[in-house]
Amino acid sequence: MEKTWNNKAWFLVLPVLLLVAFSAAIPLMTVVNYSVQDTFGNNAFFWAGTDWFDDILHSARFWEALQRNLLFSFIILAIEIPLGIFIALNMPKKGIGVPVCLVLMALPLLIPWNVVGTIWQVFGRVDIGLLGHTLAALGIDYNYVRDPLDAWITVVVMDVWHWTSLVVLLCYAGLVSIPDAYYQAAKIDGASRWSVFRYIQLPKMKRVLLIAVLLRFMDSFMIYTEPFVVTGGGPGNSTTFLSIDLVKTAVGQFDLGPAAAMSIVYFLIILLLSWIFYTVMTSSDADN
Asked: Pfam families from the xrefs (predicted)?
């Protein structure tokens, strides 16, 4: 029997399309408009063409911020993905421990980004912060305000504390969906713990890991609030990521044209890298 399609169903999607157009497409067109113009105030605009894009792509400040972003995202993925898998593997699958662990894992995700930054800003202070004061009492010279390495460690640990739970919950959802028959067959065959993980658990978690990697990459690459609250992009420019540099250009210097051009380049870089991640991680499924 030939299938019939009811195109009227698209009307159900129309409100979503209108909402996306209002919240995404229209602001994007506004940014594109600003990126090819210049203004001297009084709402007077002048055509600038691709000058702002040329300035951005030839700016050492832009490429340095991009390198910081890439390094930060690489560190975050290298820590949070294995750590999230490890925690999910060791979480209970039955009993009262399941809801307790799930609630504890979800708690960091419920805290707003600016509150997370404030918590770690106070937590790491040498004079009143528990972490900073304890390290100082142990004779460790820790000060995220003046030392770039300490600032990086603080921002990385803060992000790991805040977002590893997301990876844990996604991996745990993949693990609990594995039928017991797989484990019973592995037990009969005498498979080791590593073999069970390598040939049963990891393949079954592949799709949720893809989601986890993409989400954590995009979030870490667009991070702004937490490091801005903790370090303000300092000391110096050591933690000035692209998002912080963009806000400084748009709000601090009120250079709307360069800020718009930078935001478009920033957006395209995120799209490109996310597509590369998705293509690489799904290529094995296509081969199989």
From this structure: BPD_transp_1 (PF00528)
